Amino acid sequence: MNIELFESESRGSADYGWLKTKYSFSFADYYDPERMGFGKLRVLNDDVIAGGSGFPSHPHKDMEIVTIVTQGALAHKDNSGGSGVIKPGEVQAMSAGSGIIHSEFNASKTEEAKLFQLWIETKQKGIKPQYNQAAYELKENDFTVIAGFSEGLKINQDAKVCLGKFNKQTTTTLSLKEGEGVFVFVIEGEAVVEGKTLNKRDAVGVSQTSKVSFSASNAFVLAVIVPL
User: Which of 43, 78, 143, 179 sees the fewest Cβ atoms within 10 Å?
Assistant: First the structure.
């Protein structure tokens, strides 16, 4: 078993005024050759966008982009005809495929929007771009797949993006296939993964095993299972 700890304070960061962000992996002006991703998970950004601000139109290609809003609302528009506003309890998935141009703006002029954005390397390059969003309902004290190749909102990779909200002491196991790893990121609260205690915004990457032990009693947790 291989275990790598990613402490919250070790993340990269940037403050552009309208955007305050933390980078789990190398991104934009933050570069760490030891933090280039976890398997096919290339980006995990923890963003706070000021009211009335956002990302103007910009291109993407051959990347699966999953966005989870935890506060406020985010408005999306792209050149394939996709558009929508996502709020807490909803997930957005965009397959950039052969190329897509999109914008993302805080849907409020005054309130902050808080979100996590994941970029996962695609399984097949050059596919037709697509955009989808959907509401999700989390299981009680367990993980729920909100986006994946065969479960949740469809993405073009053999991956599973899972959320879990734990309100009582829970012990469970995350199952991995050969060649997979799991990146566990604590959004709120505290969790224990393979004996490693994770506090708010801490993470751990686990691979080279088929079973990963997990426990929590009061936590909101993101778990991303990806090919390595």
Answer: 179
The two structure tokens encoding residue 145: 């797949």
pTM above 0.85, yes or no: yes
What are the tokens at 72? 């406020």
Structure token digits, residue 41: 């998970």
Q: Which amino acid is at 71?
A: Q
CATH number of 143-227: 2.60.120.10
Work out whether strand 2-6 and strand 203-207 pair parallel, antiparallel, or are unpaired.
Answer: antiparallel
CB 97 within 8 A of CB 41: no
- 10-135 CATH fold: Jelly Rolls (2.60.120)
Over pLDDT 70: what percentage of the chain? 100
pLDDT of residue 164: 98
Tally DSSP H helices, then E strands, for the chain.
0, 20
Report the distance separating Cα 159 and Cα 223, nearest Å: 11
Q: For residue 148, report the phi and psi dihedrals to the nearest 5 degrees.
A: 180, 180
